[in-house]
Amino acid sequence: MAVDKNIIAAHPKIQVADDEVLNAKHELLGILSKLEEFYDKGDPTNYIYQLAENKLFKKHILDNVEYREHIRESVNKLKNNQSLNNEELTDIDQFVSILDNEASMLYRKLRSTRG
């Protein structure tokens, strides 16, 4: 998956090496594959399982059938070295935002227990 030439033409100051794009694709695919696997199996050993009680995750990610399909499509595109569109990137950003929110809450709890 090389850098999209249309994006480079629209934003000529962007400098991204092909290996950076490949690494980003690999990271995204790993995370989204875990989410897809969790959708299919609900395996408690999957680290995503820890989010099952999070209200935002449950409402926007877990119980949202349309979102599930978007994630599956994104995973398939990444596996086939296709570029993701803005809507798909927005879906991924929503998931990352929920993960970030959960991490922040856990950090605050840890800080408050240590005084």
Question: How would you characterize the overall build of this protein?
Answer:
The chain is 71% helix and 0% strand. It has helices at 5-10, 18-41, 55-62, 65-79, 86-114. The radius of gyration is 17 Å and the shape is globular. By secondary structure, the protein is an all-alpha fold.
Please summarize what this structure is.
This protein has helices at 5-10, 18-41, 55-62, 65-79, 86-114. It has 115 residues and is an all-alpha fold. Helix 2 packs across helix 4 and helix 3 (55-62) runs antiparallel to helix 5 (86-114).
Structural class: mainly alpha
Order of helices and strands: HHHHH
Poorly predicted ranges? none
Q: Count every beta strand, where a strand is a DSSP E run of 2 or more residues.
A: 0
- Main beta sheet: none
Radius of gyration: 17 Å
How many helices? 5
Assign a percent range to the helix content.
over 70%
Q: For the terminal residues, how far apart are their CA atoms?
A: 48 Å
Instruction: Tell me the strand percentage band.
Output: under 5%
| Average pLDDT score | 85
Shape: globular
